[in-house]
TrEMBL record:
Pfam short name (any one): RepSA
Signal sequence, renumbered to the chain: none
Protein name per the record: Replication initiator protein RepSA
Annotated stretches, region: Disordered: 399-419
Gene symbol of the encoding locus: repSA
Compositional bias (Basic and acidic residues): 399-412
Highest classification ranks of the organism: Bacteria, Bacillati, Actinomycetota, Actinomycetes, Kitasatosporales
Amino acid sequence: MTHFPVAPAAVADVAAAVGTDPITLADMLRVANSPGFERWQEQVRRTGGCANPIHLSGHSRTVDTLTGEFFEYSTSSEPGGRLRIACGNRRASRCPSCAWTYAGDTYHLIMAGLVGGKGVPATVAERPRVFATLTAPSFGPVHNRPDSGRCRCGTAHPEDDPALGTALDPERYDYAGAVLWNNHAGALWQRFTIYLRREVAARAGLTQVACKAEARVSFGKVAEFQKRGAVHFHAIIRIDGPDGPDTPSPAWATVELLDDAIRAAAARATVPLAPAGRFPARTLRWGTQLDVQPIGALEDQADITERSVGAYVAKYATKAAETTGTLDRRIGELSELDLHPGLPDHTRRLIEACWDLDADYPDRLLAHWSHMLGFRGHFTTKTPRYSTTLGALRGARADWRAQQERRERGLPDLDQDDDTEDTTLVLAHWEYAGQGHTPGESWLAASIARNIKLNRDTAREALASMPALDDAEVWT
């Protein structure tokens, strides 16, 4: 049995002092006193303090086919016979450390499409580009903070008032319309992009075929939930030459033309829904709150900077519907809501609407996506030629880490001679062996994650204070 350095009678007092419960503390002491604890810490640090790591068991052999030298690795020597790797979840509510990595990748992806880099030419900054926000229509009056200062209910709500975004009259609020709109928001965005290309061509005085030969519309976007539970989209939209960012945009392509085309396309785009069971036909469309802002200093415009846009998109790339107080996991049965008495009534009604509509719209999987209030699209998307890809960024990071590993083992860098073929052969066998932490491991991993974040924030502040450093490089 593991020896605890703390007497059992004192465990409760110590647990209260460190802000945890006795069971977690006892498990934490077990982990800390287990053989291989230092190696376990190293594994967790390598995952960035992942909150829900994936466990693998197996072995690998790395062979130099020219010299015959080889290196063998097996998880049999690891704590518990397992190797822990990061879960890679993008949601900050599920794994803050992996979400931070995802946000960083998203930031660099967006920035590459704004200022160049990662294989995108710097001249991309000269293209007409705007930051557009498209929202959902009204489904009924909600508590808000208007410019007048007072809501329709007569209250001047503070910014953190939980009533904000909730229905003034829940019995008359169109909850069915709200979740159906969320559910079809991806299709509505697709219709918008089709009309946008048509509107750009029309304003250039060209046919669609002729316009495609002169210009290409590119975008990168992120979805965000408003407090009322309706999703909306933020998008960087850019006009390039016919072959994308490598070619200059035509002379007729201006910010003003792009702005006008976006507004016209948003007004035209609709998604008609046929009658379904108890529910009548309806037409889904964008709301009237449409915002289009130039980015950077193009044509003497400086409304918003490239860095602020990149940071904004990266921030919301790691979120879901948390602003509404909804659950961050799928709901298997509607009765599960009874286990969450703190769930806001407005959010509960949206979830219940998804389940109520599910049988009438069986192909829309509304109950399956009820934890997302009906939304089933991707939170971040882009056109192929907007910039680099998340896969390319992850591949570059994996290559960099592989080079680090080779140096630690005394092996030569793979790129030390471009004319030399890679003679390394890797033979491996891996099996899934579980996921997550025990309560004590979770507490310790969270502590490691906090230390990593503190060191990262300190380094970022130091880098940001260097005037010669480009803002786009201060995400690491």
